[in-house]
Amino acid sequence: MELDLWSIAIIVVTFVVSFGFLKKAYERLGQQQLKSLPPGDMGWPLIGNTWSFIRAYKSQNPESFINNLKKRYGKTGIYKTHLFGKASILVCSAELCKKVLTDDNNFQWGYPVSNLIQGDVPFDYMSSHRRLHRLVTTVLNQHQPPSSHLGTIEKIVINTLEEWSKMKEPILFVPEVNKFVFKLIIAIFLGSGTDDNQIASMEEYYRKVYYGLHTTPINIPGFAYHRAVQARKVLVNKIRGVLGERRERRCNDPDPNTGIIDFLEKADYEDSRPMSHEHLVVLLIGLFIAGRETTSRTAIWATIYLHNHPHLLHKAKEEQEEIVKRRPSSQKGLTFTEIKQMKYLSKVINETLRIRTNNFSIFREAKNVTYLNDTTRLESVGMDKCSSYGP
């Protein structure tokens, strides 16, 4: 037993020393190539600083990754590192962030598209993004404007608040808001006819998929990523089942509870062809991620800030009460005109988004040889990722 322990200890020490030597050699070999780049740390060979980045992202203080670089190399606003298998530049000053985010001639979308989103479906997000945006915008403008969903949204909100008020134990606010927002997304995109049990089941498996997006992609039993892959398979089957049921209802019912997805199915997606069934599934998973996370986090933080600032909560409440008082007695439910009158609440939401942004970082990729600060050189090969952080 003692011999085995000594053997393990020797192997571990040898591994650490060897890896440390490789790290130093890796840094020295890259000094000439990196001499025109800003200060920073390239991390370990191959894996770089990816583990440190993910650990910070999943912690209570995701800014700790960039703050450590500031402490070690000064507040230069730009640093070199190595993330997700590629050499990268981190930008965190207002001026440089603006340049990276607005210069479409030299930078393009650089997010690593996870297989948890697209699976085995060939779906090029970079080339499809604008096309999908056009399709959704057309549906909202011509077929289902936001005002047409107000009744459904109001009903779900009222029912959810009533359910919360009847709970005898304190609610877990974050998961409950996530469930509530997911139900809203389903109602808007799939229509109001989806069964509550189906929605709850899809939300459960979607949650496991989302957690897997921020883990090391090791598809072996016991790892979070593997659990996410398995959850995605179940989620895809459930989405297919819901879409299939909707098609059957449309055949038998001339006026079903339509959602945005019904119009997307009929719209011309590419070369005058409609979107395939598999592409619709991938699109829905992407919309779940884009819709639930941004909306629920904004609602959660706005609630927290209003709770911590009672005088602001009082002003927001007064505005709502005044709007209700001006309603004609014949009106039932919220109107789009009333939403436009919520000037103060709009400021609350905008200030929440300013203080607590939904994105920890935004990835952009250099398309051409590009200079930042007249000295930092980025190329489409080599230092090609540029992560922009808010100032």
TrEMBL record:
InterPro entries: Cyt_P450 (IPR001128), Cyt_P450_E_grp-I (IPR002401), Cyt_P450_sf (IPR036396). Gene3D superfamilies: Cytochrome P450. The chain crosses the membrane at residues 6-26. Keywords: Iron, Membrane, Metal-binding, Transmembrane, Transmembrane helix. The keyword NADP does not apply. The keyword Membrane applies. Belongs to the cytochrome P450 family. This is Beta-amyrin 11-oxidase isoform X3. It comes from Gossypium hirsutum (Upland cotton). The lineage of its organism: Eukaryota, Viridiplantae, Streptophyta, Embryophyta, Tracheophyta. The gene is LOC107896547.
